[in-house]
Amino acid sequence: MQPLPMAGQPPAERADAARNRQRLIDAAHRIVAAKGAAGLALDEVAREAGVGVGTAYRRFGDLSGLAYTLMEGHEIRFQEAFLAGPPPLGPGAPPDARIRAFLHALLDLQRDQWELRLLATTTTAQGFGSGPYKTYHLHLVNLIGELGGSRDAAYTASVLLALLQPAVLDHQQRALGLDPDRVRIGLDVVLGALVLNR
Questions:
Q1: Is the overall model pTM greater than 0.85, yes or no?
Q2: Segment 9-40, tens digit of pLDDT
Q3: In the chain, fewer beta carbons within 10 Å around the N or the C end?
């Protein structure tokens, strides 16, 4: 006997749909390993997985949806860390320390999944405002609000997140030749001036 779904949960996925989803994800991982994220195309992923192209489009919508799916595990661990993990990234540290830890951790996450995050944010109509952006923004708004003062927390959070967008980081690295340490130092300088009044 199958258990009934709990209230508020999405309906259970059919077994064949779950198998197809996993085949598509496995195929996408193989393509990324062989060609990099720039080599991803939903048609090719479907062929590699042995499923219909329509199935791939229904499952992910577009390349952005596929890229976010491939990043899901990293993203879940990151959100668990800043929402409930140990300080300074998680609760228990002063807000200024948590803001800095969050920005540094997000910078590391962007670098760890560089090509996928660039693909995810440049192939969707919503741009960098898609995916987990709203969660990041709300988290920073709350921390900036805890600092007090008259700054506009929503605007300030959006400015800080703009500095960490994959396209910006990609431009800094490829076009400007800025190494990761220089970007991190620059981020701290902006954070100090904009938020921490240093």
A1: no
A2: 444 567 777 888 889 999 999 999 898 888 88
A3: N
Nearest residue to 102 via CA among 68, 70, 64, 141: 141
CA angle 42, 48, 54 (to 5 degrees): 45
CATH architecture of 15-61: Orthogonal Bundle (1.10)
Nearest to 38 by CA among 108, 106, 114: 114
Query: What are the angstrom distances between the C-alpha of 116 and each of 41, 64, 82, 122, 180?
Result: 12, 9, 21, 10, 18
Tokens of 107: 């910078």
Please give the backbone phi and psi of residue 109, each rounded to the nearest 5 degrees, phi first: -65, -45
Residue 56, CA distances (Å) to 8, 24, 71, 108, 126 in order: 26, 7, 17, 30, 20
How far apart CA 193 and CA 198 sit, in angstroms, is 5
